[in-house]
């Protein structure tokens, strides 16, 4: 059930508990309405309060376990609402997708409330705290717009969520593309990082323990695909590499624009450790218990002795009491519980202190329990056993049972006891030892489970498993083993070896019987380890046979004795059956092959010997089958074939497949040779090659034919054709009689076509005659020839080069009938030689004609070996003269400096040097020498290219100068930037330039246009010391037409010496002389196609203007112009600012006039009578500041319907004319309705309706009361206005009435309250500016006001308002934050004049 | 909260009476979706009698606006000043597919203009 508490319990505090159900939301809304009204919030803010609290509540409901708690405080300046739920407040941002309804809530909440804070409470609850400042305090909220209209800034929402995530005690990490992009502080702590930043950017996979990586990565990719699974356990790595056990939950998140995985990670190392520790302890406990049990047995028997001794002791009590006490103290200190129960009295003679706690009771408690009662505590399941044990009369018994402790939990107890009887067999007492075996029992349970698990594996294995002890007894077999062997499973699973031996017969694979001593169980218990031992087994009893494969291995104890033998069995009967079948088929095939008309034999590779031969082989070789089987296959082959065959066999055995048939020569019994092609294939058995199947064909006949053919072809044909050269024969006339095939390949001519033709027809005309002559000589000379070179055409007409050699051919008579020889195509060699020659020539030409200066130098002496034409020109001597010189003659540096330069170049790994060389005309020029070593006709020379870099050096110097100039310009700008006066700027710039260039005069002149032409206006220029100043207006007509023309075209003019300058006319020269000008530069400045200024540089002596200096002057001119423009613009701006200031002052005046109007309006508004009938009135209005002299406060006292007096006070939100206007309006409306209605609530309702219709900005608070002066009854209603104070009988009470301000809700309702005003009472109406006067955030407030009202009860009513205001001002230190209106009314009666 | 379904000048009108919060928004959503299934171009939601709405209701309207995108618009009629402020904060009014009308007549004017455009 929801519970709600309102102001009656504690003023200003509200509490509401609701179920976690969205249907409960209206309750929260209703409460917020109440809270808002209590706080006097305007309707719009109440709405905001309702919405944002609803959002927080809805969110809490979604995540709450069962209920949500709302608490609200209405404070002087703010409302605070806290929404608390039990459960993690989940940020929507980090949720995948999210419902439609979720997205907006939180942002809205943040936007509407002035302050939102989310926090995690210690109780694991989440709390959202919302703050709403009351009107007039909202400026406390930094950044919030007072109009309350704020758009949601995404950063704010993000900040809120981030806050939540940062608070989480769970480690939260987000990784995108496998890299951490977000890490909260808890995660940083978990991974041992100082701050989250240390982890950001690291690869997530590296934080996973290698063993668990696969699982966790798989889980994460599933999360990325959108799946959410249960938490996964695994290990991760801290930054220092130590592993931590964690539980991780992954889900997909939108992070920025990327899709990432959010992992929530919980450290479970502690839990894991605890689990392991528990297991270890359980094991330990078991061992301990076993030891303890053994010890106890001893103890129990010693207990008997003790009993006997005690008997004796009882007899000699006094003498031995001390001894007994000593014993007792030993017993008392035992951890086990020792007792002796007197069976005749039913009480304990002795009960050691440990018994009680072992049984789960305190010692005292347990001592009080009678044995019968103790029996009732035994677990019902264990009771029969206990009773049975107790009933035994045997000397000693032991029973384990559960017994309930005082806490109701059962614990396991072991009780060893013995009963002592008297001589007649009557029980005297029972004595024993108890101890707690709960731990052991639990361990046993665990063990039972584990064993169960293992045995289920064993039972379901298809492989048989048997375990033998060292005596060859079968102690375990799993069902598969039992199935294979058909052993009966006995109760204890044990079968003696002898029993096994008598039931079986076994054979190995060859069919040899296997003795029992060689059986797997015998071997393994002897200590042998074996694999794949195959046995054929028959059970004697049933005759059942099977094949099985056994693996065995023995298990040794610590001393090396055999403890057990493990044997696994696989039934391979079926496999053997298949193999047998296969063998039979093979046999059939062998029989078939025997009669085939080809040589077929099987060779056993172990011999090798023939395993089988067919009839054909016997017929062909002349050997009988019996003879062959005795022979090795090699005996049939000749020597060469034997080698070949051996090779093939080796190949086959190595796993190769010698498929192709190869020829062998066999020798028959009678010595004949047979050629046969043999095909060999190898047969594998058990993975090993064991036999080869050979199929042969007699190829003797074919071989003989082939041999004859080959001999016929022999001769030199092959040789010729294998030759790269063309081989030919020709007759004495030079006609081909034979052409070898190369002809076609070499020259594209078909040999057959060429027979009968002469090669000479392909020769160029020039060669042909020589060839004819040579042929004739050769025929006559009758001698071999070689080195005959000739050019010829090939079949396609290309030119080829040939080299011929040959011998004469003689006919039978001995005369030369022709020539036989070879021709080699040497075209390529010829072409290469040609290319080389040309290349050399080209190099020579290149060297000779190259524009660059080149020298060939002998590096040893420095002698110049050669130089090109450019070199002769450069050095100004002929080639011969040059070649007579040494490089040292050219180099102007002394030899030691040259050597130093060489060393330096070597160190810098450069191959060029800079030297001054003496060149033509006796000049010295700087050259850059590049040298490379080259080899020319076996001679090592230095090839040097010499480049004149004098100009470059000069350019570099110019560059340096220009950089200096640039920096000067920058300095110039810096210097003049601070100057405001354009004239001073001109002077400073001119001086800087003049000093820089070291000239007599520099001026910057504006160009102005007058009726009679253009003038230069020089204000302040520079002149060297000792020279006169020149300033004023200079007509441009004074300058030459040429200069004027150039200036207008924007071109700089200059002259190095006007006296020598041919462009300067005589009259101009005279003018210059008058001005003491020998050289000058004039730079025009053209802006918007108009000549605006000229920079003049003048010197009284001739001066060379370098190009760099001209450019420099141009740039300086431009710079000065820019700076001047800036200075001029700034000074213009200053003037215009001054003008605007003037205008602003005018505006201010206007504004004040307007204020005066408003004040007049206000005055009218506040003009009320000082008494009305019997009622006396005091009133006051004070604005908060000078700037806001006009406010929206208003009040009135007037005659209403039926002789009643209306008291009205109100406050319009805002200031200024608009507020004053609204105030007037409200006052008029209230007046109007006050004459119509008797009830204030109706007046307010109508006024509200009208104001809402008029859609005014802001709102109005108001208080309206109707006083009946005759009866003293005051009926009043309030519209969100601070309650007036009624002073009666020396006490001030507020006239409270909660309601909404006017002008916000069209359907707002107001309520009338009625009081009887005692005679002589006073009523104080005021606006909140009074109570809100503050000092350091502390308010003057209603209480202080009430106190002041009581204190000043004797003050005249007319003076009361100003006194109260003084009190407030005194409190606040003289300042007001808002306007104050005060209306004090005294009611008739009482003490008359004093009341006034 | 109650939703009354009517139609004016051929456009479906949902008149909402009462508060729209996270719970009642579900009922409003059903009505809006039902209406959009019949006519997915235009829908008027008359809020003249709806004094209160929170993000539950605004979400329904935003969702509806997305559904008619490119086909027409969603018109909210006569929301009070508080609701209008809420719509501004949540940028519903900034959406070109959402219109605010002072009354049904203004909505009619906009619709006729729309038709003459087409």
Question: What this model shows, in words?
Answer:
The complex is a heterodimer of chains A (1396) and B (118). By secondary structure, chain A is of the alpha+beta class. In chain A, the strands form 11 sheets. In chain A, strands 38, 39, 40, 41, 42, 43 and 44 form a 7-stranded antiparallel β-sheet that branches. In chain A, a hairpin with a 7-residue loop joins strand 1 and strand 2. In chain A, helix 2 runs antiparallel to helix 3 (105-112), helix 31 runs parallel beside helix 35 and helix 32 (982-997) runs antiparallel to helix 35 (1107-1165). Chain A is flat, with a radius of gyration of 63 Å. Chain A starts with a strand and ends in a 10-residue tail after the last strand. The model of chain A is unreliable at 1-8, 88-102, 140-160, 316-321 and 1390-1396 (pLDDT under 50). Chain B contains 4 helices and 5 strands; from the N terminus they run E-E-H-E-H-E-H-E-H. Chain B has helices at 24-38, 55-68, 81-89, 104-117; strands at residues 2-8, 11-17, 42-49, 73-77, 98-101. Chain B has a 5-stranded mixed β-sheet with strand order 1-2-3-4-5. In chain B, helix 1 runs parallel beside helix 2 (55-68). At the A-B interface, helix 1, helix 2 and helix 3 of A face helix 2 and helix 3 of B.
């Amino acid at each position: 059930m929801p519970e709600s508490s309102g102001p009656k319990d504690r003023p200003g505090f509200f509490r509401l508990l609701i179920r976690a159900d969205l249907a409960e939301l209206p309750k929260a809304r209703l409460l917020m309405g109440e809270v808002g009204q209590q706080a006097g919030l305007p309707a719009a803010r109440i709405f905001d309060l309702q919405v944002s609290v609803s959002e927080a509540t809805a969110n809490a409901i979604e995540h709450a376990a069962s209920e949500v708690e709302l608490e609200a405080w209405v404070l002087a300046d703010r409302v605070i609402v806290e929404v608390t739920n039990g459960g993690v407040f989940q940020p929507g941002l980090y949720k995948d997708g999210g419902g439609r309804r979720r997205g907006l809530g939180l942002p809205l909440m943040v936007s509407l409330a002035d302050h939102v804070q989310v926090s995690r409470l210690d109780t694991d609850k989440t709390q959202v705290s919302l703050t709403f400042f009351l009107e007039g305090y909202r400026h406390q909220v930094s950044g919030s717009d007072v109009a309350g209209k704020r758009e949601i800034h995404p950063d704010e929402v993000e900040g809120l969520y981030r806050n939540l995530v940062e608070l989480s005690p769970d480690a939260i990490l987000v990784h995108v593309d496998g890299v951490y992009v977000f890490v909260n502080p808890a995660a940083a702590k978990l991974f041992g990082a100082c701050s989250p930043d240390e982890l950001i950017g690291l690869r997530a996979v590296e934080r996973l323990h290698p063993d668990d990586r696969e699982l966790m990565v798989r889980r994460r990719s599933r999360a990325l695909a959108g799946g959410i699974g249960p938490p996964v356990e695994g290990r991760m790595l801290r930054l220092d590499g130590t592993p931590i056990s964690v539980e991780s939950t992954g889900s997909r998140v939108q992070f920025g624009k990327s899709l990432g995985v959010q992992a929530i990670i919980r450290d479970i190392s502690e839990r894991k450790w605890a689990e392991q520790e528990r297991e270890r302890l359980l094991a330990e406990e078991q061992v301990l218990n076993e030891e303890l049990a053994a010890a106890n047995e001893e103890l129990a028997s010693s207990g008997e002795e003790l009993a006997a001794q005690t008997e004796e002791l009882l007899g000699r009590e006094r003498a031995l009491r001390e001894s007994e006490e000593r014993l007792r103290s030993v017993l008392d200190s035992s951890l086990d519980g020792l007792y002796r129960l007197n069976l005749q009295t039913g009480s304990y003679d002795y009960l050691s202190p440990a018994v009680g706690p072992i049984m789960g009771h305190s010692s005292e408690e347990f001592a009080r329990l009678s044995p019968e009662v103790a029996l009732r505590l035994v677990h019902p399941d264990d009771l029969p056993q206990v009773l049975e044990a107790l009933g035994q009369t045997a000397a000693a018994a032991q029973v384990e049972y559960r017994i309930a402790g005082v806490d109701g939990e059962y614990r396991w107890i072991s009780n060893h006891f013995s009963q002592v009887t008297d001589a007649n067999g009557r029980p005297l007492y029972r004595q024993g030892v108890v101890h707690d075996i709960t731990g052991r029992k639990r361990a046993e349970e665990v063990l039972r489970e584990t064993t169960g698990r293992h045995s289920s594996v064993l039972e379901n294995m298809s492989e048989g498993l048997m375990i033998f002890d060292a005596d060859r007894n079968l102690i375990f077999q799993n069902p598969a083993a039992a199935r294979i062997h058909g052993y009966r499973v006995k109760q204890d699973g044990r079968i003696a070896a002898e029993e096994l031996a008598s039931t079986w017969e076994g054979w190995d694979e060859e069919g040899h019987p296997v003795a029992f001593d060689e059986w797997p169980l015998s071997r393994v218990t002897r200590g042998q380890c074996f694999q794949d031992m195959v046995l054929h087994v028959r059970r004697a009893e049933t005759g059942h046979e099977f094949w099985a494969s056994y693996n065995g291995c023995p298990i040794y104890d610590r001393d090396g004795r055999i403890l057990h033998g493990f044997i696994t069995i696989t039934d391979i009967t079926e496999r053997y059956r298949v193999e047998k079948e296969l063998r039979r088929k093979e046999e059939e095939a062998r029989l078939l092959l025997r009669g085939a008309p080809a040589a077929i034999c099987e060779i056993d590779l172990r011999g090798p010997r023939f395993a089988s031969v067919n009839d054909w082989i016997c017929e062909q070789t002349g050997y009988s089958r019996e003879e062959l089987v005795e022979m090795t296959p090699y005996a049939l082959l000749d020597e060469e074939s034997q080698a070949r065959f051996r090779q093939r066999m080796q190949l086959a055995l190595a796993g190769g497949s010698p498929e192709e048939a190869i020829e062998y020569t066999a020798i028959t019994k009678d010595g004949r040779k047979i050629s046969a092609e043999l095909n060999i294939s190898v047969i594998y058995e058990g993975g090993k090659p064991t036999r080869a199947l050979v199929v042969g064909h007699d190829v003797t006949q074919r071989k003989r034919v082939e041999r004859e053919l080959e001999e016929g072809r022999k001769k030199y044909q092959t040789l010729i054709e294998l030759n790269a050269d063309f081989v030919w024969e020709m007759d004495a006339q030079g006609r081909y009689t034979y052409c070898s095939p190369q002809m076609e390949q070499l020259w594209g001519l078909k040999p057959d076509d060429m027979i009968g033709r002469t090669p000479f027809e392909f020769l160029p005309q020039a060669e042909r005659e020589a060839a004819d002559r040579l042929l004739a000589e050769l025929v006559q000379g009758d001698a071999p020839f070689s080195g005959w070179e000739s050019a010829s055409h090939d079949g396609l007409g290309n030119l080829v080069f040939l080299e011929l050699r040959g011998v004469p051919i003689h006919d039978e008579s001995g005369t030369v009938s022709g020539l036989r020889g070879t021709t080699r195509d040497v075209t390529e060699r010829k072409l290469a030689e040609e290319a080389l020659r040309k290349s050399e020539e080209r190099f020579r030409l290149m060297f000779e004609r190259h524009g660059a200066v080149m020298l060939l130098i002998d590096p040893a002496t420095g002698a110049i070996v050669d130089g090109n034409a450019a070199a002769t020109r450069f050095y100004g001597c002929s080639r011969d003269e040059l070649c007579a010189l040494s490089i040292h003659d050219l180099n102007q540096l002394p030899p030691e400096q040259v050597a130093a330069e060489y060393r330096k170049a070597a160190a810098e790994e450069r191959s060029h040097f800079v030297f001054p060389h003496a060149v033509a005309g006796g000049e010295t020029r700087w050259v850059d020498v590049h040298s490379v070593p080259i080899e020319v006709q076996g001679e090592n020379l230095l090839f040097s290219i010499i480049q004149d870099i004098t100009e470059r050096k000069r350019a570099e110097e110019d560059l340096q100068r220009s950089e200096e100039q640039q920096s000067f310009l920058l300095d110039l700008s810096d210097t003049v930037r601070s100057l405001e006066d354009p004239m001073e700027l001109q002077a400073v710039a001119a001086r800087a330039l003049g000093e820089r260039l070291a000239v007599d005069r520099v001026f910057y002149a504006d160009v102005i246009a007058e009726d009679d032409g253009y003038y230069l206006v020089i204000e302040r220029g520079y002149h060297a010391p000792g020279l006169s100043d020149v300033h004023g207006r200079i007509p441009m007509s004074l300058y030459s037409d040429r200069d004027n023309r150039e200036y207008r075209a924007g071109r700089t003019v200059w002259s190095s010496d006007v006296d020598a300058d041919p462009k300067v006319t005589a009259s101009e020269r005279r003018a210059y002389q008058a001005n003491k000008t020998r050289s000058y530069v004039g730079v025009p400045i053209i802006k918007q196609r108009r000549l605006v200024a000229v920079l003049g540089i003048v010197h009284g002596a001739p001066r060379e203007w370098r190009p760099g200096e001209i450019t420099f002057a141009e740039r300086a001119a431009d710079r000065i112009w820019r700076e001047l423009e800036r200075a001029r613009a700034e000074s213009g701006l200053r003037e215009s600012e001054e003008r605007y200031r003037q205008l602003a002052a005018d505006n201010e005046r206007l504004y004040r006039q307007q204020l005066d109007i408003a004040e007049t309006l206000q005055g009218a508004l506040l003009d009320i009578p000082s008494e009305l009938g019997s009622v006396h009135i005091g009133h006051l209005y004070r604005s908060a500041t000078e700037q806001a002299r006009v406010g929206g406060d208003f009040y009135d006292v007037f005659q209403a319907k039926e002789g009643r007096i209306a008291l009205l006070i109100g406050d319009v939100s805002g200031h200024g004319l608009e507020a004053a206007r609204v105030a007037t309006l409200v006052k008029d409306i209230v007046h109007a309705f006050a004459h119509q209605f008797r009830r204030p609530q109706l007046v307010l309702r109508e006024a509200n309706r009208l104001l809402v219709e008029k859609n005014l900005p802001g709102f109005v608070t108001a208080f309206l009361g109707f006083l009946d002066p005759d009866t003293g009854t005051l009926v009043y209603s309030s519209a969100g206005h601070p309650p007036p104070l009624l002073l009666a009988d020396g006490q001030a009470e507020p006239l409270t009435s909660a309601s909404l301000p006017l002008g916000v809700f069209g359907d707002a309702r107001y309520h009338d309250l009625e009081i009887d005003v005692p005679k002589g009472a006073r009523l104080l109406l005021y606006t909140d500016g009074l109570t809100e006067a503050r000092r350091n955030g502390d308010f003057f407030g209603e209480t202080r006001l009430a106190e002041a009202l009581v204190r000043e009860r004797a003050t005249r009513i007319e003076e009361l308002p100003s006194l109260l205001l003084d009190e407030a001002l005194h409190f606040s230190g003289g300042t007001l934050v808002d306007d104050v209106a005060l209306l004090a009314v005294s009611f008739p009666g009482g003490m008359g004049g004093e009341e006034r | 909260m109650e939703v009354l379904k009517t139609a004016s000048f051929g456009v479906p009108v949902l008149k909402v009476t009462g508060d729209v919060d996270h719970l009642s928004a579900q009922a409003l959503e059903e009505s809006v979706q039902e209406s959009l299934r019949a006519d997915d171009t235009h829908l008027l939601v008359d809020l003249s009698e709806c004094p209160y709405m929170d993000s539950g209701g605004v979400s329904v309207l935003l969702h509806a606006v997305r559904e008619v995108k490119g086909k027409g618009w969603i018109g909210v009629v006569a929301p009070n000043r508080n609701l209008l402020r809420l719509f501004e904060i949540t940028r519903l009014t900034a959406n070109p597919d959402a219109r605010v009308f002072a009354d049904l007549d203004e909505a009619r004017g906009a619709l006729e203009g729309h038709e003459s455009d087409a």
